[in-house]
């Protein structure tokens, strides 16, 4: 029974991947249904960049798998824009044995992209090169960080990065990050009008190949998540199945 169910799942995922691939070949972005602003409120609050990540629990999730240091690692990410700000959240798999490489995120807007390094900052907003972003962050939630557009244009941003276990031992929760960037600053950097933004994608090549994608326009909130490399979806399904099977053993 499980074998037939798995085959059916693989067929459905493969079919979806092929549709997405054909859409990409035809120049049609892979879109998620735009939600109203109220849909993404948690109680009376929207997403807060505060190191408490429960407000992401009802958002669509993208699995991020490729290039992990462990073949069973399946990281998770979410993305959202309310038209004023872009919000991103990434949670590392518990099997990942290193600190998240959060300094190497990339932002793609329509057909242009730039690096968006996350770096330590001083109280005045200038870069603090003494903040150990490459693997020596102590346990706890760190907010003395900021997003920079390119190398290194400051923008209106906020960041919360949490290290649950400095040793990154197996079966302890992996690192987690959430950050916000002002949409006006994104448009200004790319020298485009805000209402001309159709698709925003964020990915990190040091974490995985899949991109978190917002599709829509700045005149209406954008919400959703889709794989940047859609053919990886089939592999993701198989990895999930194998991982669960290993855990059962």
What descriptors fit this protein?
20% helix, 249 residues, disordered N terminus, 3 helices, 4-stranded antiparallel beta sheet, alpha+beta, 25% strand, 7-stranded antiparallel beta sheet, disordered C terminus, single chain
Can you give a write-up of this model?
20% of the residues lie in helices and 25% in strands. The chain is an alpha+beta fold and 249 residues long. Helix 1 (2-25) packs antiparallel against helix 3 (232-248). The two termini are 18 Å apart. 35% of the residues are buried. The model is unreliable at 2-44 and 225-249 (pLDDT under 50).
Give a brief outline of the structure:
With 249 residues, the chain is of the alpha+beta class. The protein has three helices and 14 strands.
Main sheet overview: 7 strands, antiparallel
Q: How many strand elements?
A: 14
Mean pLDDT: 76
What is the N-to-C order of secondary-structure elements (H for helix, E for strand)?
HEEEEEEEEEEEHEEEH
Whole-number radius of gyration?
18 Å
Distance from N terminus to C terminus (CA atoms, Å) equals: 18 Å
Topology, element by element:
Elements (H helix, E strand, L loop, with lengths): L1 H24 L36 E3 L10 E7 L3 E7 L14 E4 L2 E4 L2 E3 L19 E3 L2 E5 L3 E2 L2 E7 L12 E7 H8 L8 E5 L8 E4 L6 E2 L8 H17 L1
Antiparallel strand pairs: 1-2, 2-3, 2-14, 3-11, 4-5, 4-12, 6-8, 7-10, 8-9, 10-11, 12-13
Helix pairs in contact: 1-3
């Amino acid at each position: 029974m499980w074998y037939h169910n798995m085959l059916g799942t693989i067929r459905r995922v493969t079919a979806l991947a092929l549709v997405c691939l054909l859409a990409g070949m035809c120049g049609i972005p892979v879109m998620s249904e735009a939600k109203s602003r109220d849909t993404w409120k948690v109680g009376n609050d929207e997403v807060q960049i505060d190191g408490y990540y429960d407000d992401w629990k009802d958002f669509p999730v993208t699995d991020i798998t490729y290039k992990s240091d462990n073949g069973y690692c399946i990281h998770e990410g979410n993305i959202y824009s309310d038209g004023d700000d872009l919000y991103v959240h990434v949670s590392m798999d518990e099997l990942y044995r290193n600190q998240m490489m959060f300094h190497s995120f990339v932002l793609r807007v329509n057909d242009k992209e730039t690096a968006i390094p996350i770096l330590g900052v001083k109280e005045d907003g200038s870069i603090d090169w003494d903040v150990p972003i490459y693997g020596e962050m102590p346990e706890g939630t760190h907010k003395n960080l900021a997003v920079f557009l390119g190398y290194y244009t400051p923008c209106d941003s906020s960041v919360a990065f949490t290290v649950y276990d400095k040793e990154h031992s197996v079966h302890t929760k992996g690192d987690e990050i959430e950050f916000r960037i002002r949409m006006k600053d994104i448009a200004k950097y790319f020298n485009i009008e805000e209402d001309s933004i159709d698709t925003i994608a964020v990915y990190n090549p040091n974490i995985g190949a899949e991109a978190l994608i917002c599709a829509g326009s700045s005149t209406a909130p954008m919400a959703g998540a889709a794989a940047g490399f859609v053919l990886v979806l089939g592999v993701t399904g198989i990895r999930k199945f194998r991982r669960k099977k290993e855990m059962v053993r």
